[in-house]
Write a structure and sequence with these properties.
Number of helices: 6
Oligomer: single chain
Low-confidence stretches: none
Mean pLDDT: 85
Structural class: mainly alpha
Radius of gyration: 18 Å
Helix content: 55-70%
Order of helices and strands: HHHHHH
Distance between the termini: 17 Å
Strand content: under 5%
Largest sheet: none
Amino acid sequence: MSITTVEFIVFTTIGLLILLNAMLNINRYKNDTINVVIKNWSYNKYFFITFLWGVFGGHFFLGSKKPILNIFITHWEIPPIALAIIVIIMILYGRKLPKDLIIKTKYQVLLLITGLLYGHFIWSQRHEEFIQFTLNN
């Protein structure tokens, strides 16, 4: 798949999410936007969302020069598999939480930072300093 196709898919998806959020923001119902729904989910049983948000931030936007363990250089599949296992464990644990429980902000911040560190050091992009994309005309 060409980079142009991937960019089109990513920009279209982001654009549709922004459009949907704008439509939800001006309808007659209160607190039904995407960001409010995701925030409410992450305060209880789906607290793994905060962790994943940090992982994706560290994975896409940061990136260490070298992995924390050299095994990740040759076995690139270990970090995403480990991430899937961690998230499944978090989901199973979250299902056992009481419905009225709200995760405290300090734990949300801890989840976010832990995810950021995982995405940065364990599941890092490890790109070159700067990648310049050329546009196909």
